[in-house]
Amino acid sequence: MQQSVSARTTPAGKWIIAGTVVLGSFVSVMDISIVNVAMPQMISTFGVSLDAITWVAVAYSISEIILVTMAAWFSTLMGRKRFFVLSFILFTAASLLCGLARSIEMMILARILQGIGGGGLIPVSQAIVLETFPEEERGMAMALYAMGVTIAPAVGPVLGGWLTDQYGWPWIFYINLPLGALGIGLSIIVLKDPPHLQRTLARIDVPGIILLGVGLTALQLFLERGEREQWFDSSFIVMLAVVAGISLVALVVWELYAEEPVIHLRLLKNVPFSAGIGLGFLFGITLFGSIFVLPLFLQRLQGYSVTDSGLLQLPRTLIMLVVTPIAGRLYNSVDSRLLIGLGVLMMMVGYLNMSGFTLDMEWTHMMTSFLLTGAGMSFMFGPMSAVVMRTVPIRSLTAATSLYTLGRRVGGNVGYAFVASQVQHRAAFHRARLVDHVTPYDASTNQMLDGLTGRLGAGRGLAPGTAESGALKLLDGTVTRHATMMAYNDVFWLMGMLFILSIPFVLMLSRGSGHAAQARKAAEQDR
């Protein structure tokens, strides 16, 4: 029976198990974003360029996403509890090494190890939560898991900025040590492998592992370095695209025929599950894309500090703490597609509202958009995770959560690349349009220049020529700021409209919790 795992667990014990594994997901996801705010200080410590320091983030991202994909295979190879505990130990030990690193080479190596440990925690955590709770309690259980993996990316920059300012950048890694020690201890005590999960691998899928490693590494480098290298103007990026395409296509073909594949692509025949991966991909684009673009807007155009920009986004996190349990409760009584559709609608409206942000906008006027997107995430992600996994056979849950997490993480990387590319290109486009109107023949332009020149000359005592030159520079800066603001507006609008693509995926999901018995029956027949 699908509820056999939870039947042996006390109500309190179930929530201890859930809290333990969600802690693992939380610290792993948080370390994707927490490092970004500390990079300027790392540059000074290591004495390297900005281009070199970005590999601190890239190294973690590559190793983490590969282990996310292979989590089910490693669970089968060594046992899921053992794999989870070892992943937690490696993540925590590597965090210590990151804090102690005093060379860029040591830091990159430590981040690779940290990504290997962190990548195993996320999908295994979700599988354990799903197996620990019966169907009627999965809504609340997935609500807890959703809070862990969606709040963590938002908490990372705020916590990282504060720790860096107060204690120095090593503490963004040292903060993982007490959390890791707690998680390791609880994992050893409370986790057990279910009877259906047996170590049954007779052979190692070496070709699959090689193709997976090469393909995902090339894909990650393509997305991470594409904007910096001017995309397809760079032969290096073209080569990465070719390698990623060939490797991943070959991986799909190989895995469909392998007797013991490293990733279970046959699960994609399950239409609701595949639809969930599509939704997760779109969710990842908007979640990680907004986490990237909002701090840029608040810091570069609004003039807020790193810490203050994080605090301004805090309401989006706090509303999730309130709404996520509500969505979990409603899961048992409302068609899940309605909950997910409501979340999609709220996020769409929130991002479209952001497309109306202005340079002189007060922070209080931004709150509506932040609250809408935060509440929308709560209604979308928790119920989506529960309903997507409902038709998956229990013995395939770990493999399914690996693919599901992979979709969201790849979406997140696409979101980063998409936002970085669009902000730059749209800013250049709008600047060119604005400059067309800033001419000596435009009366408003001449009026502004005369005013700026007069203020610089009379107010600061500058010579006429110097004042005129300064006025031109100020005007140029004003044009650039407005062009950049318009670019951010375009990106927010595109992110909002992206949710239109989610409508077919929502309709392909199974109906709702009232049909759970039918879903479980189908899952048992597949077993």
Q: Could you characterize what this model shows?
A:
The protein is mainly α. It has 3 domains: 1-199, MFS general substrate transporter like domains (Growth Hormone, Chain: A, Up-down Bundle), CATH 1.20.1250.20; 203-259; 269-422 and 496-527, Growth Hormone, Chain: A (Up-down Bundle), CATH 1.20.1250.20. The protein has 22 helices and no strands. The longest helix is centred in the last third of the chain and has 39 residues, at 397-435.
How are the secondary structure elements laid out?
Layout (H helix, E strand, L loop, with lengths): L3 H4 L3 H23 L5 H8 L3 H4 L1 H24 L1 H21 L3 H29 L5 H30 L3 H4 L1 H15 L15 H20 L9 H23 L13 H31 L4 H7 L1 H17 L5 H19 L8 H27 L7 H39 L7 H18 L3 H34 L4 H7 L7 H11 L1
Helix pairs in contact: 2-7, 2-8, 2-10, 5-6, 5-7, 5-11, 5-18, 6-7, 6-10, 7-8, 7-18, 8-14, 8-15, 8-17, 11-12, 11-18, 13-17, 13-18, 13-20, 13-21, 15-17, 16-17, 16-20, 16-21, 18-20, 19-20
Quickly list its features.
mainly alpha, about 80% helix, single chain, about 0% strand, Growth Hormone, Chain: A, 22 helices, about 525 residues, disordered C terminus
